[in-house]
Amino acid sequence: MPHQLSRRRFVQAAAAAGIGFPTVLPSGILAGPSPNERLSFACIGMGGQMRGYLIPELGKIDQQIVAICDVDKRQRESALQVKGLTNAKPYHDYRELLEKETGVDAVIIATPDHWHVPICQAALQAGKHVYCEKPLAHSVAECRALEMLAKSHPKLATQTGNQGCSTEGFRRSFEVIQSGLLGTITEVHVWHPGHAWPNGVDRPTTSDPIPEGLDWNFWLGKAPARPYKHEIYHPGKWRGWYDFGGGSMADFCCHGFQLAYRALELDAPTRIEATGDDLGHESFPTRCTVTFDFPAKGKRGPVKLIFYSGDNHIPPDHITKGPVGSTGCLVVGSEGTLSAGLWNTDCNSRLKGASNFQGANQPEVVKLAKTQPRIDTEVLKWDPKRAAKGERPRWSQVNNSHMFEWVLACAGDAKAYSPFEIGARITEVGMLGVLALRMQKPIVWDAEKRHAVGLPEADAIIDPKPATDVYLPR
Question: Model-level pTM?
Answer without folding.
Answer: 0.90
